[in-house]
Amino acid sequence: MADIGSTSGRDPAFWALIPAAGIGRRMGSDRPKQYLTLGSRTILSHTLSIFLEHPRIRGVVLVLGPDIDPDALDLPLAGGRLFRAAGGAERVDSVQNGLEFLAERAHSDDWVLVHDAARPCLPLEDVDRLLRELRDDPVGGLLASPSSDTIKWSDGAGHVERTLDRERVWRALTPQMFRLGMLREANACARDAGHPVTDEASAIEFLGQAPRLIEGSAMNIKITRAEDLELARLYLMQQGRLEGRFSA
Ligand code: CTP
Ligand code: MG
Questions:
Q1: Helix (H, G, I), strand (E, B) or coil at 170
Q2: Among the atoms of ligand 1, which is closest to the Cα of residue 19?
């Protein structure tokens, strides 16, 4: 029987790219924050599991700092689906190194989900929603959360210049999901132009494209400072992803 299900002959694959080469300056701990433990596993291991256990993710590129021995990490075994790339000076450099690694192995139309190692509380449903909502989108987009605070725009000298319309303010989360080829080009262009790239969407915006906002859970915090650890522990426990129990 002829295959009439696909006109392109090939469905784009989904890849995950996890930048984990930061030093965690704001956490101020004795090691980079992704190597701190929540329960019996490192934050990095919790984050990786989300993607390695997802049936739609073809492979995961983990971007690690230069002094890290991957064999010494408690990484979840992945049946050959986990790859390593080398970190760079800034997050955007680490992401670009991961994209270059992928470009050798993947198709430029494939999707890449870039997700911070420091966000282990990403709910599985949010990954599923992102894949579902964006899979036929020409550009891609990101998980984001509507702001519950009123946001002030400062004059740069300690005074309010104006108040932003709260209805239109969103906090950018990860994963951010774009086509490999477009993201690789966008990052390189923005970097060469000296444009600040703090997330993938800002590079895509630099190309003149409009990434889609997909509402995600506010539980998906980026562990940044020491006080975030307890909150992350609570969220993981609520999701049933942390062993342990509340004391009586
Ligand atoms: N990251 C990276 N390469 C860098 C800097 C950051 O891969 N040169 C990664 C971090 O490991 C983290 C994610 O990007 O998973 C988000 O960065 P952030 O939360 O800022 O982590 P750090 O840069 O490590 O923390 P800090 O800014 O406090 O030093
Ligand atoms: Mg940083």
A1: strand
A2: 7
Residue 117's nearest CA partner among 242, 176, 201, 33 is 33
Length of the chain counted residue by residue: 248
Question: Among all ligands shown, which has an atom nearest to the Cα of 24?
Answer: 1
Entry pTM: 0.94
Cα(179) to centroid of ligand 2, in Å? 24
Local structure of residue 234 (DSSP, 8 states): H
pLDDT by 10-residue block (mean), the chain, 248 residues: 49 97 97 96 96 96 90 76 95 98 97 98 98 97 96 97 95 98 98 96 98 98 98 97 60
CATH number for the region 14-137+174-209+218-238 comes to: 3.90.550.10
Q: Is the CB of 25 under 6 A from ligand 1?
A: yes
Cβ < 5 A residues, ion ligand 2: 22
Residue 22 Cβ inside 6 Å of ligand 1? The answer reads: yes
DSSP state of 174: E
Residue from 226, 221, 121, 227 nearest 173 by CA = 221
- Is the C-beta atom of 98 inside 6 A of ligand 1? no
CA separation for the pair 65, 148 (Å, rounded): 35
Ligand 2 centroid, distance to 119 Cα (angstroms): 13
Ligand 1 centroid to residue 206 C-alpha, Å: 22
* CB neighbourhood size of 122 (10 A): 26
Q: Where exactly are the structural domains of the chain?
A: 14-137+174-209+218-238
